[in-house]
Design goal:
about 180 residues, alpha/beta, two-stranded antiparallel ribbon, globular, single chain, 4-stranded parallel β-sheet
């Protein structure tokens, strides 16, 4: 029976060997049975730009996906940590980028695919930050800086984010029911 698989928020990175091993097993043993694999964001802990594809860890992940793509279609949606994945990675991984949100026909059923961070609409500071970093101008300027500087800036932003989350009310970091209803 045809089926598709959906994954998100793996946050793959070299410092998380357990999740990396589980992903490798999933790609080797489970995903080849599927018609399609949908990766719905935050596939990597962070993505500093496609020039980081030279990193052996990232190159190995792209090779695993490309091998899977020989029999399984791969779709990738940006998350809030890997929105800088671009054409070079998509080509190396044999993946197709999906906009967020995307409505697909999943075996006769209309299915809305989202990373979901836009549904956390009560976190106004995050939504403003998201709009800033998703702008083509910001991305062009950011990607024009050296890779090492980008990685350092991302690490600093991640620390700031963790500190900010510790002082925010938990309910604003969750989905807003009205936003969910309006989206659906």
């Amino acid at each position: 029976m045809p089926h598709s698989l959906f994954i998100s928020d793996l946050h793959l990175c070299p410092t998380r060997p357990a999740i990396n091993a589980l992903f490798a097993r999933f790609i080797r043993d489970i995903a080849p049975q599927a018609e399609a694999l949908y990766i719905l964001g935050d596939f990597f802990e962070y993505w500093a730009g496609d020039d980081d594809l030279a990193d052996p860890f990232h190159a190995a992940i792209a090779r695993q996906l490309a091998q899977l793509a020989q029999g399984t279609r791969i779709y990738l949606m940006h998350g809030n940590r890997d929105f800088l994945i671009g054409d070079a990675f998509l080509h190396a991984a044999s993946a197709t980028l999906l906009p967020d949100p995307t409505l697909i026909d999943l075996y006769g059923q209309a299915t809305l695919l989202m990373h979901g961070d836009t549904l956390c609409s009560d976190d106004v500071a995050y939504q403003n930050f998201r709009a800033q970093v998703r702008s083509p101008e910001w991305q062009r300027a950011f990607l024009a800086t050296p890779l090492a500087a980008r990685k350092a800036q991302i690490e600093a932003l991640r620390k700031q984010s963790e500190e900010a989350k510790s002082t925010k009310p938990a309910e604003i970091m969750d989905t807003n029911a009205d936003t969910v209803a309006a989206t659906l």
